[in-house]
Amino acid sequence: MNDVWSGYTFTPLFYEIDGQGVMFNMWYLGHVDEAVDGFFVHCGLPYSDWPGMGFDAHVVHVDLDFRAGVRSRDIAEVLISPSRIGRKSFTLDFAFRRDGEIVCSGGVVYATVSTEGHGTIELPDQLVKALGEVRPLRG
């Protein structure tokens, strides 16, 4: 259903830039969250619909690898793609691209949980369908 998605573009705000002139590391994950939200809208399963379907997803692991920083006034885009779909969890790879160069990449592992307090659950069919084909961004 999906190719690598790149529908989230941003320019860092003044307060996101540290004394070295690059985006402070914590802001990368904020932009990943925004991009993941847009990814699921693009895939036809907006996050806002998940509670009504009885599930949610919790972040259980994140990793980031930096090659260079996103700098002040850069126009950066965040690529999102599923890299693993398991029974109760899935991984979304992300990459920050600036001027055609990948400057940061990583992955977020999400565990699916019941909104009724029953702990982790198997990935709902709607979510598996929305995630589509596995296309890792990292080698």
Describe this entry's structure for a reader.
The chain is an alpha+beta fold and 139 residues long. It contains 2 helices and 5 strands; from the N terminus they run E-H-E-E-E-E-H. It has a 5-stranded antiparallel beta sheet. Strand 3 and strand 4 (89-98) form a beta hairpin. The longest helix is centred in the N-terminal third of the chain and has 18 residues, at 25-42. The chain is elongated, with a radius of gyration of 15 Å. 25% of the residues are buried. The mean pLDDT is 95. Pfam families: 4HBT_2. InterPro entries: HotDog_dom_sf. This is Acyl-CoA thioester hydrolase.
Strand and helix map with partners:
Elements lengths: L4 E6 L14 H18 L12 E12 L9 E10 L3 E10 L2 E14 L10 H7 L8
Antiparallel strand pairs: 1-3, 2-5, 3-4, 4-5
